[in-house]
Structures are given as structure tokens and as C-alpha cells.
Input
Amino acid sequence: MFILEEPYVSDFCIESLKKNSYPILKTDIIRNEELNFVSENDFVSTYKETQKLYTNSENSIQKIEELLKNTNLPETIRLFKDKVKTRELLSKIFPDFFYKKAAYKELSTLNADEFKYPFVIKPSVGFLSFGVYTVWNKDEFNSVIEKLKLSMDKVKGYFPENVLSGENFILEEFIEGDEFAVDVYFNSNSKPVILNIFQHPFADKNDVSDRMYVTSSDIISSYLTSFTALFEKIGEYAKLKNFPAHIELRAAGDKVIPIEVNPLRFAGWCLTDIAYYAYGINPYEYFMEEKGPDWSMILENNKGVYAFVMSEVPQDVEIERISGFDFDSFKRDLNVEILDVRNYDFNVKPMFNSLFVKAEKYDDLKHILKLDMKKYVKLKH
Output
């Protein structure tokens, strides 16, 4: 079963569902007579029969909880959507990890002397990197809180409250190491099946943006075993079956700690599709048909480095002043092979576009992290 929702459904996703005639809950988001739409009653009965559900967007969570309230799925969703609940689960694996919950109205009253620095603060219910900040020392505590409030005001209304909420926040210890994101599903035997591993590089220590994610044969082969072992524990403790997830984590040597587990989906904005461009893996088909990649064969002759790049709307430029985006200049400065471009309406989305790109080596991509998006913004006269 599938539910398609805002903010974006890719043509690749639509074609995959059409080709396989997978059942899709009928909504107003997609109107395509060639798709296998089903009613709400059929959706419920099909889910109870197959126990399989995938959504491209967490915007569908409220609908899922309404329709499947008599199943265990809403409880599992809330377990992972609420980062405090997730930390409670993960404490079985990482008992010494520090975290604290705080309401929005409490943030300004917190005692900066009580924390060990650095630490991360973010919405307990969040999406992408909205409202995520690292507090490196006590002196910048108050300024970070003010930045957080401004950023949350900026994105208010972009997403439903059960996707991104400014009501409660989690303060947790800073996790050392490189950041990664993984598309994985837990099969009918609760075994994790990894479909993609991305490294999430940053421009500097204060950067928390989603500008770029990178995948390659080296990245997959280096982390496949250790990530799978960790996910086996998560699947066991949470009793996960037929459950897709997008898991973010940090790794430093043998130490691997999850940042968050995003339920019922892979990489957002259909960016999971890069698995097809890079490795020939169709994530929608692999999940529905319970297939696992033969990574040894896939990686044997795979060359190059793949990435998806997001050109975000600068937060310090008013939307009302923007007339367009200079894609030609942006493309020239990227200076890499572009595999696919997906454009968005910047008036209602936080990005101008996202791209799938390919380069010979990671060094050919590093400059993208430093690009100033304001350079490509066209302003009204």
C-alpha cells in the first residue's frame, strides 16, 4: 500500500507505482487514471492483509493514524516521530546517552550552566534540519535560542504539526563523527534490508543544512555491516516488521549512534530515487516485493560518486522580493554531471530545486557546500 502526499511526488515514483499497479489510497494529491487508487475502506483492508505501507511524505501521518487506529502502526509511528520517545527506546542500546525534553516556552529559562558542551537542540517532532542547532559553548547559548525561534517562525505553516512542531524540543549530547542517512526496511522477519547509505557532509562546524548527501561504493562497503548490526537491535526492540525507515546517524570508528528514525518513508522529497540512478535499485519495488540488493555484485563495477543537492531558499531573503532562480549560473558553478533536476515553487516550498549529480570523486563535490544561494536569487525591481 502507498499514500502519496505533499510536498513532492517524483515522476519516477509515479511510474514505479503505475508499472506495478501497487494500490494507492485515493486522495486529491495525484490525479492519474492509470494508477491503482483504492478507497479508504479498501486501504484499511489491504493494509490488514499485507501489513505493508509506504508513504513518500510524513504529511500523511495524521491520515494513517486515523484510518489505522485499530492497528499497532500509529503507536510505532509516534515512537519514532517523537525524538524523546526514540531516545527512550535507544537508551536500551546506549544507556549513558544524555538527552532532555523542554517545552518551547521553557527554552529562555533554561540554565546554561547545567549542560555539557557542545550539545544539539532541535524540535522533538521535526523534519529535515529545520530548527536544528548546535550549541558549542555557554556564551552562545542565548543567541542560539534566539536564532532557533526565528527559524521556527520562518518555516511555520510549511508542514503539519505532526511533521514539524515548535511545541517541544529535545536537547541532547553532541554525537561525534561523520553523519550518515540510510534508507532501510525491516522485512517480514524483522531483518533490516539496507537500500542506500548516504554521507551527509557539512561546510563547517556550524552548518546543519541539508545542502548535499553523497553515496558511493566506498561509503556503502565501509558501513553496510556495522549499520546492519545496529538496525537489527532497533528492529528487535521496536518489534518492526514490513517497516520502511530513513535513519540518520553518526559514526566515529566502531562507535555508531542514531540521530533519529523517520518512519514509513525513505529519503524525503523522493530523493530516495537516487538509489536507481546510482545502483539500479528501485526502492519502492524492493520494499513491496521484499527484495534485497546483492551489494557485492552491485558495487563490484560501480564507479564514481553520486549526490543529491538541494538549492534552498535563503532564510534571510523575503519570499516577496524573489522573482526567480538563476539556474544557468547555478549549473555552471556546480560543474558536475547532472542526472536529474526537480524544480519547486519557491513561494510555497523551502527550495528552488533538487538535483541528482555524479562526479568522479568526492573532491569534485566539496565546493557545492560553500555555494551562496543568494548569488542565484533573482530579485524583483
About this structure: DSSP finds eleven helices and 18 strands in the chain. Residues 65 and 72 are 10 Å apart (CA to CA). The two ends are 48 Å apart (CA to CA).
